[in-house]
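Example complex used in Figure S2.
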Amino acid sequence: AQSVTQPDIHITVSEGASLELRCNYSYGATPYLFWYVQSPGQGLQLLLKYFSGDTLVQGIKGFEAEFKRSQSSFNLRKPSVHWSDAAEYFCAVAPRLSFGAGTTVTVRA
Amino acid sequence: GAVVSQHPSWVICKSGTSVKIECRSLDFQATTMFWYRQFPKQSLMLMATSNEGSKATYEQGVEKDKFLINHASLTLSTLTVTSAHPEDSSFYICSARSVGVGETQYFGPGTRLLVL
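Predicted assembly (225 residues):
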């Protein structure tokens, strides 16, 4: 069975500081991994995805994620956050898309 | 590219009435569409998977007679909440997956349903 764990429920970060969101997955084969962002009252926007190849994946809005098979992780990073990055972030694993519980990011001025 | 729309974006209805929510893939053909439900401050819960031209596959615990799903074309899926009750109030989100783009799902903006 596949599953996703996001250990951090809520993260607060200062504007301009770096951000890292953790994601651990459980899946028997090579997973398809995704990060989505959801603003309040909105649907989900795809930030980036990993299918195969280079383990460091670049996404939109300056985000990147690194796939580490040995750690079963797919952590999301951004070097310098903007106030507009405040949102809910979901990690997901396919083929049967399973979502983590989400991490709420608050950005303080 | 890969835009998914939902209509309506929000709806208020009386208890006992039925509500239909549409999900459209605007610029690609979606062989598979998914319907999710999201409660406040929680993750998405998959309700059902629908493939164009065939019956939807419902997740365990989801009443198929209450949540009717139709995927009549490669660009349209509908979710009808029949005889809605206040406990059906939620945020419903659809997603669509296209042929040839791996397992990527593209999500609609969601529909907020409030049943009075």
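Chain A touches chain B at residues 32, 34, 36, 41-46, 49, 51, 90, 94-95, 97, 99-102 (CB under 8 Å). The mean pLDDT of chain A is 93.
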